[in-house]
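haha ok so turns out i had the wrong file open the whole time. this is the CORRECT one, sorry everyone. sequence first:
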Amino acid sequence: EVESETDFAKLNMALWRVSQVSQWLNYIELESLVPIFREHSVDGEILNELTDGILEVTMKITNFMHRRKIILKRQRWNDE
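then structure:
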């Protein structure tokens, strides 16, 4: 069990709640996307499954660099 919201880094990404995904977006400097991720109830399990196509078509994130950053940072985070 996580003691506080700032403990998101201690858990496997797949176990994150929506609030922890929001913290991670802040951490990677994409805080402007937090409302979109909350609207789609993206938790850690879903975050791990997001593709460029889902980010663009379903979530309407049109900025390619934002989508690329999400995918790259997610891969690096999971590799650590």
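Residues 31 and 55 are 15 Å apart (CA to CA).
again sry for the mixup
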